[in-house]
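Team,

Forwarding the record for the chain on the shared tracking sheet. I've put the sequence and predicted structure together so nobody has to dig through attachments.
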Amino acid sequence: MKRPTLLLFLSANHLHAQHMAGGRIEQQQDFTDTPDGLEAFASFLNTAKCPAYLLTDLIEEDFRHEIVPHLTGGSRTALLKRKFEQFYRGTPFHQATVLKRQKTGRRDVDMLFSALTNPSLITPWLNIILAGQIPLAGIYSVPQVSTPLAKDHPASHLLLISWEKSAGLRQTYFSNHHLQISRLTPVHSDLTFHDAVVKELSRTYQYLKSLSLLPAGQILDVRILCHAADRNELQNKLPVDDDMRYDFADIGDVGKHLGIDQRFTDSDASQIFLYQLVANRPKTNYANAEHTRYHTLWQLRLAFNVSAVVLLLVSASWAALNFWESAGKAAETGDLTFRAQRTAAEAQQIIRGLPATRAPAADMRASVSIMRKLRRYAPVPQTILEPISAVLDRFPKIELNELDWQGNATEAVASNTRADVPAQVITLNGTLQSFDKDYRAALAYLERFQLELGTRGYRVTTLRKPLDVGPNSSLTDQPGAREDTLDFSLKLVWRPPT
């Protein structure tokens, strides 16, 4: 967390925001879901233009365990789409996580489908984030980021209990270290943390038994993330039960392991999960490509800046190498230097004997032309890459995977461009996103992208098409046709205009 980062923690009617830099909290503020609170949040974002992570802790989070056939490509995408429409038609915030693949029979896949089922709790805050063009990396939940806290526990059936001050008591159940289900219970001000744990633990145990998630006769291990003072109270109040074993994780020790530079005074684990999110970001999240488009653009700009720095360093290294080679040959050229100096002295005597004259105009014109040509041999990276970035901003469904840039003097010369300088050749490898098998629309979208590049002065050549649409090709046999993404490769050639 060394670079500036914006961490957001969302509960039912409250959002906590903190701006991080160098692993420390630079600025933090809390907002309510009122018009004034939303307006204050928008003003806060004006001072924090950096990558953001949104962590949710909501009651309205649903989990469904399903065993599905092992599919790939378009078939797998279609299956997941049907499941989402079946389970979570009313919300865009859903995801599917692979738990494991079965080892017998058809070797089906155990998957966990989950969703934030009340989008109205998230949408107002998300709209403000997108309106401010904040690079949002993803939308996550506390149960997701709790998994690392259960990884080191040897139990096959573990219940992790934590408390977040603005949300409530969170109980997350893991089977063989895989998330299965999670419950959030609000804790009112008249109920202490340890009293809430004692009250809710027995209910959760019966709930797991009723869902057949806990096998008969199986001991349930309970890990409680808490402050040392609450641990002492819990040890005195938790009932002695042969069906449950208790384990306590000191919140201060967990915070030190995550590099949190603050002293914990109670069992509020909000900061634990925020830091855990950045340290061990899950592979999947509830955000879609539309929600994270500004983060994708931010990554692209960062890649362009790094490329420019690399080019500068390479140029400097080449110049240093030439200087070193020249210095190494200085001893061999001593005699030639002496002769050159003697010849120069004789030439000066001859020049001094000639009448004073001005340099011919033809020589001056030739010198200026040579200097201009030398400048064109090393164009500024920003001149070449900035138009590409502008075009990518206009085509959000194109994701840049790789960009290669080199000079080439053998490229054909286009009309209205200079033929006396090398061409700048850019190879752009990208992916077309979210077309849901509408390949005609995907190809038309890519064609408009290429035409837009052409209007910016690039000669565009297709190196690899996203689909082979020839008469002898089979759409179903193509890797790109079996997924909701299509890979392509373009060659862009640029020369300065005449």
